[in-house]
Amino acid sequence: MSGFTHFDAAGRAAMVDVSEKAETARVAVARGRVVMAPETLARILEGQMGKGDVLGVARLAGIMGSKRTSDLIPLCHPLMLSKVTVDFTPEPPDAIAIEALVKVSGKTGVEMEALTAVTVAALTIYDMCKAIDRSMRIEDVRLVLKDGGKSGRYEGA
Predict the structure, then answer these.
(1) Domain locations in the chain as residue ranges
(2) What are the catalytic residues?
(3) What is the CA 13 to chain-centroid distance, rounded?
(4) pLDDT tens, 36-47?
(5) Does the structure show a pLDDT above 90 at 5?
(6) Does the annotation list 76 as a binding residue?
(7) Which one, 26, 78, 105, 153, has the greatest CB density within 10 A?
(8) Is 136 one of the annotated binding-site residues?
(9) Does 77 count as an annotated binding residue?
(10) Which CATH superfamily is domain 31-148 in?
(11) Any idea where the Molybdopterin cofactor biosynthesis C (MoaC) domain is (predicted)?
């Protein structure tokens, strides 16, 4: 088979061969949110969770998760990321929005790394708060920006 595909000539799963692609600056932004009881959000924002600084730990977990994306997602290329940020915005009365920005100069994009950063950060919030709120929901994880590379720019909602 020719072109960029996750299948080899025999139809088996294979990592895409990007060796002929040019290195370009690439960026991706992903977003998601964690919905929780209003009391849980208040405790997080007041620093009153028994396990410590929830958002600080979730930020670190999201950054670390983005760097391990190729270990988590089959056929994903390992990348030397040049920048990863994970930010949180409280959405009173009952949610925290998460946004991850990932940059690389390489032959393949960083969409999966940005999505992984958001997901791991959200899971970390859940893990650190589940003792008081098992009804939390992780919602709306999505790619909102992808730029660079042959396929150009994508902007979502």
Answers:
(1) 31-148
(2) 127
(3) 24
(4) 999 999 999 999
(5) no
(6) yes
(7) 26
(8) no
(9) yes
(10) Molybdopterin cofactor biosynthesis C (MoaC) domain (3.30.70.640)
(11) 15-149
Distance CA 65, CA 115 (A): 10
Residues near 33 by Cβ (< 8 Å), separated by ≥ 6?
91, 95, 96, 97, 98, 122, 138, 139, 140
Q: 75 among the known binding-site residues?
A: yes
Q: Are 27 and 96 in contact (CB under 8 A)?
A: no
Q: Cβ(22)–Cβ(29) under 8 Å?
A: no
Strand partners of residue 13: 7
Q: Label each residue of the chain as H, E or C.
A: CCCCCCECCCCCECCCCCCCCCCEEEEEEEEEEEECCHHHHHHHHCCCCCCCCHHHHHHHHHHHHHHCHHHHCCCCCCCCCCEEEEEEEEECCCEEEEEEEEEEEECCCCHHHHHHHHHHHHHHHHHHHCCCCCCCEEEEEEEEEEECCCCCCEECC
- Output the pTM of the full model: 0.88
